[in-house]
Amino acid sequence: MDSCLKAFMVALPGLGIMILGLDIGGANTKLAGSRGEIRESIYLPLWKEAPLARILQSVAERTSPQAVGVVMTGELADCYPSKKDGVLSIKSAVEGAFDCPCHFWGVGGFGWTDLLDLAAANWSASAALIAGEVGDCIFVDMGSTTTDLIPIRGRPQAALTDFGRLVRGELVYSGLLRTNLATLLRRVEIGGSWVPLSSELFAISADACLALGEIPADGYACDAPDNAPRTREASLRRLARTVCADLSEIGEDGALAIARQARWRQQKILRLALERQAGAWGLDLVVAAGIGEARIVEACRDPDLSCRPLSSIYDRSLSGIFPAFAVARLLERDLAGGI
């Protein structure tokens, strides 16, 4: 157990209750205990009518928490006609699953007054915890779908909606697994020729990662675009399809060339986003989190930013589920009277 967790447990010797944190996204639902005793991510694509209520009931039965802290981003899934409808649906599923008090974190904390304050507030919980335990920095969390870049000066300084964060470059729609390669590349060089990419959803960033050996097969924690196996061979076939080819036409070298160029482009996007926030806020320390933590560390080298991986502060397995852990930790602190 890391020193931060040990220190917090010493500060709360008499609390003795299990607090569960939930981060309910459009693609993944993550859970963590406030002291790291539970660490889990469940692939649960809401736009495919995933059984959120049933899964949450199962979680409630096997964890038996005394209180639950909740953040969400899943309200943006296009199965909901509006973000407000999504918030209401997710909130209802949580409250129907747990018998204990459920505390929902909004962009301003637990004391929200507008339902839309709960929309896409997971970054806010993470940044609030980091602000108190690390201080001024750019908190960067790269997940399967998006990357958050949150400037912290005394407190988190980001815009309060996804739209506002997109405008200010604090939200980048590029993630380690689910990014359509056609959004990264207009063309690729294969065998000395420049070839336009098809705009179809033929391959995603997980295919590039798997083909290049950056993730294991079980790290491909989402659906493949063609619903075929999530193996290296299948990923190479999907990469070839982005240029309307079979793997036999361009060979493994051609498919790997696509993967490398997609990776390079994604890193450039991340690096430019980091430079923008560092310049705007005069910050040179980055705290890197998420399943793409290593990518963030790499992206900090060119701008010569100091980078502190979250896995060096907490246990490595918490990095990919940090918003769930953060909201549980913040709730424990809140229930203990602000200790």
Question: In terms of topology, how is this protein built?
Answer:
Blueprint lengths: L2 H9 L7 E6 L3 E6 L5 E5 L8 H12 L3 E6 L10 H15 L4 E3 L17 H12 L3 E6 L4 E7 L1 E2 L5 H7 L2 E2 L8 H4 L2 E4 L2 E4 L8 H7 L20 H10 L5 H35 L3 E5 L3 H7 L6 E4 L12 H14 L4
Parallel strand pairs: 1-4, 4-5, 6-12, 12-13
Antiparallel strand pairs: 1-2, 2-3, 6-7, 7-8, 7-9, 10-11
- Biggest beta sheet summary: 6 strands, mixed
Q: What is the CA-based Rg, rounded?
A: 20 Å
Q: Can you count the helices? A: 11
Whole-number mean pLDDT: 93
Oligomer: single chain
In CATH terms, what is the fold-level topology of the largest domain? Nucleotidyltransferase, domain 5
CA distance, first residue to last residue = 20 Å
Would you kindly provide a written description of the structure presented here, covering whatever features stand out?
With 339 residues, this protein is of the alpha/beta class. Helix content is 39%, strand content 18%. Strands 6, 7, 8, 9, 12 and 13 form a 6-stranded mixed beta sheet that branches. α4 (122-133) crosses α11 (322-335) and α8 (232-241) packs across α9 (247-281). The longest helix is centred in the last third of the chain and has 35 residues, at 247-281. It starts with a helix and ends with a helix.
